[in-house]
Amino acid sequence: xxxxxxxxxxxxxxxxxxxxxxxxxxxSRPQARPMSVAIVAAVALLSALYQAIFAIRMFMExxxxxxxxxLLLDVSDTTxxxxxxxxxxxxxxxxxxxxxxxxxDRQARSTMMILSGINIVFGLFQLPYGAIALGLSGAxxxxxxxxxxxxxxxxxx
Length: 157
What we know:
- The chain has helices at residues 3-7, 24-28, 35-63, 77-102, 106-125, 131-144, 147-153.
- The protein is mostly helical.
């Protein structure tokens, strides 16, 4: 062995998204996950489940002559399939966001805030039927901009 290889200090690789213990940002980030992050992740999982059920329903509408919803609409099968594909993509997106929120991924937080903002705007146009979506999206948005969540994600105030 060469002398250089013996004197070389071996360091453990840090997990993705974390920093060394001596770094000031690592010391300031709390270790315990705020309850609001878990609540928003649960809302994202429920949204993913709803979108998955909606996608299955759209594919069922496209597959047969009978309508699942009981509505007598003259809509082509292609429209149902496109709606089903988009709902399935949205369900996968919500799953990604929920996983990312629990793993302290800043992109997932930003994505959830954008989705919540879009849902707030559309919920306003769908009142009174959009009241539940408006309430959940508003709560998720305001929980994600709270100080404990910002601290946990390492975002400056």
